[in-house]
Amino acid sequence: MIDRDNHEKALVTLMLEGDERAFDIFVDEYYPRLYRFAFKRMGNDAEASLEVVQGTFEKVLPKLAVFRGEAALFTWMCSFCRFEIAAYWRKRAKIQPEVELCEDHPAVQAALESLAAAGDGPSEMYERKELAGLVRTALDHLPPRYGNALEWKYLKGKTVRQIAVRLGLSPKAAESLLGRARSAFRDGFSELVGGWTS
Q: Are residues 84 and 155 in the same domain?
């Protein structure tokens, strides 16, 4: 398995050298994660989230030369994203909405319907929203290829072959990666759910 720090530093170095493939990998790995990060902080507004993420990338790219790897690249990018979110609300002279603890993304809710075996009361609806947030949190903290592959497969309905093409892998290698991603997600999600239910 590739060491995260070395992967991130190598990726940044290649981008600074003008490597277009490295830039494509960077966008594929970090754009979906940053969007998920922004989405809940933008009151689940998809259009505003896209605007904020675009602004974040515009700020991050010229600053890549100062990335030293003291924090994870995603964490470093989130600091820029937080600034963009605050600027978005200031620019519109609006008060930033209170952020719910969990997202209410329709695709995530649909994926979680099977978890709510019975009942449609307020308690069950609240639990589904909480679980939706935990799913997104677990996806965000997986290695980028794992989180993105799972999102493409289970939330966006992409086939293994389509995922393989996006990742530059053979279908067999993509299936193997999905298996490892599912296992990592299961472990992380179990920890989150354990902490939440306690």
A: no
Number of structural domains (the chain) is: 2
pLDDT in tens, 11-66: 889 999 998 998 998 888 889 888 988 887 887 888 999 999 999 999 999 988 88
135 & 178 share domain:
yes
Q: Give the closest residue to 61 by CA, choosing from 101, 94, 18, 2.
A: 18
Tokens at 172, concatenated? 């067999």
Q: Which two tokens stand for residue 162?
A: 């389509």
Q: How far from 36 is each of 41, 45, 46, 67, 148, CA to CA, in Å?
A: 9, 11, 10, 22, 11
Is 30 within 8 Å of 79 (Cβ atoms)?
no
Identify the residue with better confidence: 134 or 4.
134
Instruction: Give the C-alpha separation, 184 to 188, whole Å.
Output: 6
Phi and psi torsions of 103, nearest 5°? -75, 160
3-state class (DSSP) for residue 43: coil
84 has pLDDT over 50:
yes
| Domain of residue 78, residue span | 4-91
Tell me what pLDDT residue 192 has. 60
Final residue of a structural domain among 39, 61, 91: 91
**Amino acid 55: pLDDT:** 93
Give me the phi and psi of 74, to 5 degrees please.
Answer: -65, -45
Q: What is the pLDDT of residue 152?
A: 81
Other CB atoms within 10 Å distance of the CB of residue 81? 23
